[in-house]
Design a protein that fits this description.
This protein has 142 residues and is α+β, with helices and mostly antiparallel strands. It is built from six helices and five strands. The strands form two sheets. A three-stranded antiparallel beta sheet has the order 3-2-4, covered by helices on one side. Strands 1-5 form a two-stranded antiparallel sheet. About 13% of the residues have low confidence.
Length: 142
């Protein structure tokens, strides 16, 4: 079932790609708000960190536009129970992993304005998941 759901998530052609620069994060990125997430964990558990906070090498960061939208996508059941499972639980969530992720465009599915409880419902609808696929995602425990 996971492969069916995962395949559906990648069928959409108009998506926001999280293509990172192959170069390292620039010093000025620390002076901006950013999404930060752990190197090791079973779920993303991402959060937004205010400007001028420096992180260590056990965390990854994403800076740029639409941080609220990205944060809600990364913390959704859809992402954590399909795409995120492909990451190595002992790391492997850096540049190579993130370059493979496609997020719905804000104009098609703006998650930043939604209550947390509604995010998964909107993503299920956006991706056209069947009742069986939604039940699978809702009932699966880590």
């Amino acid at each position: 079932m996971t492969n069916e759901v995962h395949h559906k998530l990648y069928q959409f052609s108009e998506e926001m790609s999280l293509s990172y620069c192959k170069s390292r994060i620039k010093v000025e990125d620390f002076s901006k708000p950013k999404i930060v997430y752990r190197e090791i964990g079973q779920v993303m558990d991402a959060c937004i960190v205010p400007p001028n906070i420096v992180i260590n090498n056990k965390l990854y960061m994403i800076s740029g536009d639409n941080l609220e939208h990205l944060l809600r996508f990364f913390n959704s059941k859809v992402f954590n129970k399909t795409t995120f499972l492909k990451a190595n639980l002992t790391g492997g969530k850096g540049i190579d992993f993130m370059e493979l992720i496609h997020v719905p465009l804000v104009s098609e599915c703006d998650l930043s304005l939604l209550e947390e409880k509604d995010i998964d419902r909107v993503l299920y609808s956006f991706y056209g998941l069947t009742t069986k696929e939604v039940d699978f995602l809702e009932d699966r425990m880590f």
